[in-house]
Specification:
heterodimer; A: mainly alpha; MetI-like fold; 72% helix; B: mainly alpha; 73% helix; flat
């Protein structure tokens, strides 16, 4: 009986189709992974393998020398390297945290309260998804200088709070996942609005949170251009790495090492939260 | 009468609570997005240059853009070519990948999702393409093509005006799959399995019918979001060009509207003119979004 079940194909799935799909995924998967595999291989290559002709893709005698070089270059910089790390960690963590809380609050009000202007606000947010932030770079600079935020980390953190993608996602999710009946029941039990929000609503939207965290964190972590920050000791990590490693061909190995180190954090975060997204979505599929 | 009044008080109170929830986010959003766009539109009608107070110049900036700036016209063309390649094509790829990945077993699915999503979270990983398209014989593409005997001498990929736009499109496509893709993944996983069984009973006989009649209509919110994100990022290609091909790219062959905007905004400080470029880009993005939304609302009907 069990064997029969294993052999049975799923609903509406042909064997030929499954094979084609797997080949398709394999081909494109290789294309997507190519630069990453390259960067990882290069970061472990000794100098003679970096400049071998014809170029070889994979590493044959892996070494940690590139990573040591990277740290030597970083040690020699005028601003201590730990300072850049602190800047980026601060901006990523505070920016993401504030964004998740503020945009969830706003999304909650937009979908569960009837008040004047709510449609206008949501339309504005949707509209703002439709253009790139480069469009607002010039006025943003002027506004920040009026607010005295130029040359502070707040110039990176505060705008991240108001990013529109998170609000849009959160609202779409809450509309489907937060039933009015639960809120009504909590109100009848005498729970205050903030209590309802933090202990009921936020718990129901964990998958959306994780998505918001990934999007926001990844953007802030990878931030490299600093139109609003000129002080060397306030610049983000990625900027510092790009700057230090624009040293040309002699730094190919060290620059690969830096790329690999920079990508580890968002990838680990994604791996951790992805499994939770899958889990939460699997259980939420049981509803209605 | 009394109940009417207390109802009114309750509704005013509820409105106040709503605003407490909305305001912290909305103030920031308003300041850095809505207000910024308005300021940008205002500057586009002035000759602002950061040093002197702005003078109103009417539509001069726009006249200059469309009649006297051949580089801008070229940038508009390039931007549309890139958007047409990375937008619809990237969108369909995201949809296909997410759909196919959804068929895999959970463990493999998590791994494959990571492979496809990693390019967009790994910061400046796209710089690796520089090494692949490097112009000397040490470049991987050149090295491979030479050793296969397809070409005899290295091609300077990133300085070739005929090929640059294609290469930029490829790299943009590679790095832009992420956000829309993840949204689709979430959408597919949110579909309740019982809909598939119901669909099979109603006479659906293959996976394509199932996708069109069952899955896609159920995940319309995700499709809409993905479309918006794809369009915005497809018109927003700019940094990749500068990083791969330098600034300006050879013959402006991959020069985009964003590059043009950064040129006048960050380098020449002609902020009035740059604001006009920003406003044109804004209008292009918003109009295409509304056009595409109309198409998506017809899916599965």
């Amino acid at each position: 009986m069990k064997k029969f079940k294993l052999k049975k194909r799923r609903l509406n799935r042909s064997l030929g189709g499954d094979i084609c799909i797997n080949i398709f995924l394999l081909v494109f998967g290789c294309f997507m992974a190519l630069p990453m595999v390259y960067a990882i291989c290069t970061s472990f290559k000794p100098a003679d393998e970096l400049w071998v002709y014809p170029p070889r893709f994979f590493v044959s005698n892996p070494t940690l020398k590139n990573f040591k070089d990277l740290f030597n270059i970083l040690d020699a910089s005028t601003v201590p390297f730990s300072r850049y790390i602190c800047n980026t960690v601060f901006v990523s963590v505070v920016g993401t945290g504030g964004h998740v809380i503020l945009s969830s609050m706003c999304a909650y009000a937009l979908c569960k309260f009837k008040f004047h202007g709510r449609q206008v606000i949501f339309n504005l947010v949707v509209l703002s998804l439709m253009f790139n932030t480069t469009v607002t770079a010039i006025p943003n600079y002027i506004i920040m200088s009026k607010l005295g935020m130029i040359d502070t980390l707040w110039s990176l953190v505060i705008p991240a709070f108001g990013s529109s993608l998170g609000l849009y996602l959160m609202k779409q999710f809450m509309e489907q996942m937060v039933p009015d009946a639960i809120l009504e029941a909590a109100r009848i039990d005498g729970a205050g609005e903030f209590k309802i929000f933090f202990s009921i609503v936020m718990r129901l939207v964990i998958p959306a949170w994780l998505t918001l965290i990934i999007f926001s964190f990844q953007g802030l972590w990878n931030l490299a251009d600093t139109n609003f920050i000129y002080r060397e000791d306030l610049k983000p990590l990625n900027y510092a790495l790009n700057q230090i490693l624009s040293g040309g061909v002699t730094r190919v190995g060290a620059s690969s090492a830096a790329t690999v180190l920079m990508m580890i954090v968002p990838i680990i975060m994604f791996l951790l939260s992805q499994s939770q997204i899958v889990e939460t979505l699997a259980t939420s599929g049981m509803k209605d | 009468m009394a109940t009417n009044r207390s109802k009114k008080i309750a509704s005013v109170k509820k409105e106040a609570v709503a605003w407490v929830f909305v305001l912290p986010y909305f103030l920031i959003f308003f300041t850095f997005t809505v207000l910024s766009v308005l300021i940008s539109i205002y500057f586009s009608f002035t000759d602002y240059n950061m040093l002197q107070p702005p003078n109103f110049v009417g539509a001069d900036n726009y006249v200059r853009l469309f009649l006297n700036d051949s580089v801008f016209i070229k940038a508009v063309g390039n931007t549309f070519i890139l958007a047409l390649i990375t937008g619809p094509f990237g969108y369909l790829l995201c949809l296909l990948f997410a759909w196919f990945i959804n068929e895999l077993s959970p463990g493999i699915r998590a791994f494959v999702t990571l492979i496809f999503y990693a390019p967009s979270i790994s910061g400046n990983m796209y710089l690796v393409w520089q090494a692949i398209f490097s112009g000397d014989a040490y470049g991987y593409l050149n090295g491979t093509l030479i050793s296969l005997g397809i070409i005899s001498s290295p091609i300077i990929w990133l300085r070739d005006a005929d090929m640059l736009l294609g290469i930029v499109a490829l790299v943009a496509l590679w790095s832009s799959l992420g956000t829309s893709f993840l949204t689709f993944i979430a959408g597919f996983q949110g579909v309740d399995k019982s809909y598939y069984e119901a669909g099979a009973i109603d006479g659906i006989t293959n996976r394509w019918q199932e996708l069109w009649y069952v899955t896609l209509p159920l995940m319309r919110p995700q499709m809409l979001l993905s479309a918006v994100l794809s369009i915005t990022s497809s018109f927003g290609v700019g940094t990749i060009v500068t990083q791969l091909a330098g600034f300006p790219s050879v013959d402006y062959s991959a020069h985009t509207i964003i590059n043009h905007l950064q040129d006048y905004g960050n380098t020449r400080y002609e902020l009035g003119y740059a604001s006009a470029i920003a406003t044109v880009l804004f209008v292009i993005m918003v109009v295409s979004n509304f056009a595409v939304r109309r198409i998506i609302s017809k899916v599965g009907s």
